[in-house]
Amino acid sequence: MERERMEVFLELFREEPPVYIQGLERDARQQGVPIIRRGTGDVLRFLLRTRRPERILEVGTAVGYSALFMAEYMPENAGITTVEKVASRLAEARRNFERHDSGKRICLVEGDAAEVLQDLVEQGCQYDFIFMDAAKGQYLNFLPAVMTLLVRGGILVSDNIMQEGDILQSRYAVTRRDRTIHARMREYLEVLTHHRELETICLPIGDGITISMKRQEAANEET
């Protein structure tokens, strides 16, 4: 209840996105499509305006809402590469990009994220901002490729780290089918917060996010 009151209060000070973004949000909510929450959008907007990244990678397009949202606040010379494999969501994302990405600054890549990330690594691609919002149980598997793709000083944002609050519970308090993702997300947070190459903060915003910066200096290999 207290959290709900806080959210209602903060709405008074929240910057409204463009009307078409509000429409996409409304449609996605009605259809039960998972999209970023407003608090997460606030953080993305702030980081994009202050960090001004030019090369953005999004892992998990869904219907294109978050890519279009980020495109509204990134620098004019920036571009987004976004990855999705679910056919129905790909079709909707394409329609949304055709309708709203008039500058053609969003590149939609179809395929399994693990394979696409490896392809990007082999191509020598580099990004200064990466938004992780795909299958939560795969975050840890994606991380090695993401670390290679992220430039020093670059930002990695990981969404939905709280798993609707399940991550706070003992593994025995969550349903059996959710125990694997519960364990993997906890391990992911452990790795992020103790990674020698990252400076990470965990924030209880939306469904929980982490913001990680890849350190400017390479980690000392000595133990």
Could you write a compact summary of the structure shown?
The chain has helices at residues 2-10, 19-31, 38-51, 65-71, 87-100, 113-122, 139-149, 179-194; strands spanning 55-59, 79-84, 106-110, 127-132, 150-159, 198-203, 209-214. It is of the alpha/beta class and 223 residues long.
Word description of this protein:
This protein is an alpha/beta fold. Helices cover 42% and strands 20% of the residues. It contains eight helices and seven strands; from the N terminus they run αααβαβαβαβαβαββ. The protein has a seven-stranded mixed sheet, sandwiched between helices. Helix 4 links the parallel strand 1 and strand 2 (79-84). It is globular and about 50 Å long.
